[in-house]
## 1
Amino acid sequence: MTRVSDFVDEKRLWDRHMAIAEHGKTGNGGVNRQALTDHDRAARAQLAGWAHARGFEVLIDEAANMHIRREGWEQGAPVVLSGSHLDTQPTGGNFDGVFGVLAAFEVLEALEDGGIRTRRPVEAVVWTNEEGVRFAPGCTGSMVFAGVAPVGDLADARAPDGARLGDELEKTIATTPHAKRRKAGLPLAGYVEAHIEQGPRLEAEGLTIGAVTGIQGGASYEITVTGEEGHAGTVPLSLRRDAMRSAMAIVQGLYGLMADPDDIVKFTIGRFQAHPGSPNTIPGKVVFTLDFRHPDAAVFNARADAIEAVCREQAGPCGVSVFTRHRNQPSVFPGEVVAMIEQAARDLDLPVMAMPSGAAHDAQLIAPLCPSGMLFVPCLKGISHSESERAQPADLAAGARVLADTLAAMANA
Amino acid sequence: MTRVSDFVDEKRLWDRHMAIAEHGKTGNGGVNRQALTDHDRAARAQLAGWAHARGFEVLIDEAANMHIRREGWEQGAPVVLSGSHLDTQPTGGNFDGVFGVLAAFEVLEALEDGGIRTRRPVEAVVWTNEEGVRFAPGCTGSMVFAGVAPVGDLADARAPDGARLGDELEKTIATTPHAKRRKAGLPLAGYVEAHIEQGPRLEAEGLTIGAVTGIQGGASYEITVTGEEGHAGTVPLSLRRDAMRSAMAIVQGLYGLMADPDDIVKFTIGRFQAHPGSPNTIPGKVVFTLDFRHPDAAVFNARADAIEAVCREQAGPCGVSVFTRHRNQPSVFPGEVVAMIEQAARDLDLPVMAMPSGAAHDAQLIAPLCPSGMLFVPCLKGISHSESERAQPADLAAGARVLADTLAAMANA
């Protein structure tokens, strides 16, 4: 029996990574290809060019999700979908997201090279703005695709540079004029996303493939505390509306809310800024971020729901506002998808283990729509969201092979 | 008898304030004219231009303190000095510091306009980097002048923008090429600094002049907490060396140390930054500032001495270092200088009261060198270190008149 994985081409896959890495490269081994910038558009146009050259149809929806389609033989069958994102962090690497897109595209090419017909159509997808750096929240494309929010509800988001999401989407769609317009959302037979692990476990255990069992729930908030500026030497503490002091009380309240003797809660304050930021001025404003994750939906939602009330209780004389950057429910991938990935890996003699994902991915949004899963390949020391992010050509090819056989099985089931 | 105060010109003094306010203006009614920036240099150059136009000699020392000198008739007599600073907070106002410089310059012009000779020379001075925002510690110029630290010990301080203090001093000195070079330090007969109150008392009590009795002790620290970066979604809390979490515990400990039912302690955390500052990365480093003040030397020193131990106790798994930006002991101004200021105000029928200063000033550094004092004028609602800082032309002129007669008395005593 012909396996699709036999037609995965390690060099072609690697060369495509290196070609995409040109768009937004920083000169330090990484890229700054934030969502819906000219660099992002150039990377998409390059991929669309490769697709057209291979004779694949390219389709694009109102969230600028770009699909590359290879037809199946059964009329009107639901699609088997695979992909990830091309946008990156400001000091990002060449594999986070990119690998999932190019592995899916490699599967289409392998099917074509092998002359292998599938019952169901197979599509590779580029999701828009997964990282959420330039426009919050992230996972814009998969959110719209999954019907979580219509694009009209998100279109007025603004980047720090002033650009409007809706305008940038239109500009991006216009970059691929040969792509057929399609409405977001689609009947799906299955979804598998390939990704670098972004953690150290596969490398540490000498394994090539992770079959992902699920993704913990993740929520991200921006908290703004508003007080009144004043001179640090003259205003009595009892008369201050010190945004820093209120922010500190809020943080203590949140640490209390998030206390977990079982050490499963992940809770991080990653950004914290006082304005105007002068040593001898009482801050009139403090802005900080919260990142909260938990794998159990009941715990995740109970604690996430309590955050705003804790902020208000602890704000003292200051005002406080809580902006939800994103809130993604925990995903548990169906056991049969995990098993399919494990089986495909074993059939290729690739060492594999089942493992959860700590990081969030577009697959979290797609999981409610169809049987979904993810596969991981190792990255050096688990480093990601960094220009030091590295992955091996052989590991990427191995991941693409497992993806190929898994998607083929889904497309013919 | 001719009084110098009769020649103080309210409109000229106000117009000069408005001219200086052009340098670094923010568009919101205030200025961002941080020390040793191009805006600071432009303001100094403008003042030097006015001085040269009036025929005064301009002198500059190695700390870029700029002196404007009007000779006395007694050969070699010690100088009567008055001045303040032109640098501001990032969102500063148009009067803090500026008033003290321009009032002193107005006295020189009034002496000139009145054709009044003095026994001792009178100099107006611009002290360098009083605010200490861009380069720590503040009061750079008066510290060097007072011999507390030679400029060489401070020259390697770096601004957040990477600039080196020593280089910026040279660049600033070069901006006034017609100024005569002089070594910092000078025999002084007396020093009086005029300033806006930066507090609400004069306004609340309907008074025009505050004769300052002393300045509370003030210390400023930069605390660096060092942990380890990691992915917010993958590292268990028990294994983290989260610099943010340790910093938060340290802050709680410090709030405890500084608790004061009498509400005399002033304690401010004005700057607080996490690195790398990404919402989904555990901070590997947090840097924040403390500002602590108290008028009683025993209390001031006991609490300041305890700060580092509290930081170490609360640092948990992280490292912590405490850098003292400055630590200025409480100052008490001599009663005879306070009395001279009160007398000058009464002679001008200006309502006056003796009062302490909550804010630190260059006068604190000069006080050990000669009989020193300060006078305050009201500012709107006591607001300072803010673009909302406001003062009335008539109050500024009143302050300049009291300064004029006080300096003249010192110069002829």
## 2
Amino acid sequence: MTDLPPTSEAAPWQMQPIALLRSPYREKFGIPRQPGLVDVTSHVDMVAGYDDPAMVEGLEGFSHLWLTFVFHACAEQGWRSRVRPPRLGGNTRVGVLASRAPFRPNHLGLSAVQLVDIDTRGGVRLTVLGADLLDGTPILDIKPYVPYADAIADAAGGFAPTPPTPLEVGFLPAAAAALQGRAELEMLIVQVLSQDPRPTYQAGEVGREYGMALADVDLRFRIHGGRVEVIGIAPRA
Amino acid sequence: MTDLPPTSEAAPWQMQPIALLRSPYREKFGIPRQPGLVDVTSHVDMVAGYDDPAMVEGLEGFSHLWLTFVFHACAEQGWRSRVRPPRLGGNTRVGVLASRAPFRPNHLGLSAVQLVDIDTRGGVRLTVLGADLLDGTPILDIKPYVPYADAIADAAGGFAPTPPTPLEVGFLPAAAAALQGRAELEMLIVQVLSQDPRPTYQAGEVGREYGMALADVDLRFRIHGGRVEVIGIAPRA
């Protein structure tokens, strides 16, 4: 506070994306607000200059990774001192640094993901579970999850001590028909919608119809009480 | 791998330090290689433009924080595809992304720290435990530790499944005398030296004397077997 640092230490740093994330999330709407709640499969594709298989040698011994990424789709909107976390119903404001909200200085995000596969044929592609990030998210760093330093079981979780309660998800007949032979897509839809994708300020609106682009389809759905009803599923244009 | 991203997503991002860390670590030598092993008290001083108390409202409900920082003292030396982790004796190389080494692309670091105090009189200063970082480290982000998403108790820890075994630390009479009435400094020295600060390629060298600047003193010490012997403690010039 006194004893302010030399400006050199507070000078900006230029960060180069080392990988891009590939996921079924085509728009911000619908992405769970906390990582690890949905087991969506994503790919981390190392970009040119960072695609040397030597860089990931030994990574296969770790079950989980940290991804440090940029909330790139929010960067243009800048940051705020206070945000309204969904976990507080969207009405109570907290400091942005007391949240994991994307509208933060530097727009940095952090997700622990499960490492499923490492493919080094023709570049480097990691397959991960639980990275609930927009398709195309720039990854700035990948680190092993080191349980003895990172897993603090007795940490106090402030206003988010437990995961949110998932909603039930059902399909109207037309939607169910569109899922014939697509078990994986059905699982993805159920997982994503059970996390209640509505903006919290609309959570009280009954019967409103929502649309969402997910993987290769467009969804239409409604939410009443604790239940999501999928009305339609159409191939995306 | 195929299907390469538009270059815009892989364009560089400019990151502005929002805070600077103040710690007793005056040089890289001696800093524990994994965060959280030593309970050193540090201060996170928000820099001008990010020192609005509103930004940390609600943070007091969380016991632990994530600090995302830059290994600024290593940035000039660039990065390597493979590194030799101390945990593997310094002889075996692994991919840099399978390590937490500082010589990584973007030089980003990540530490879980315990939040001890928030002082918003005349700026914002957080007091934290376990941030084993060089004095002056630029902090790019501060996030609450959310146990249900971040604490993965059953994660597999690769080549670093457990914390390293600490060394015993003893003081020769002259060093012990210099610690009269400085219990806190003594505790700091014991914690830091017990983590074996030697570069691993020298771990076999018996009787070699090392020097280290820590807090306001210069230390001299030797290591034989599992024991560190502090030879001298002098006020720093």
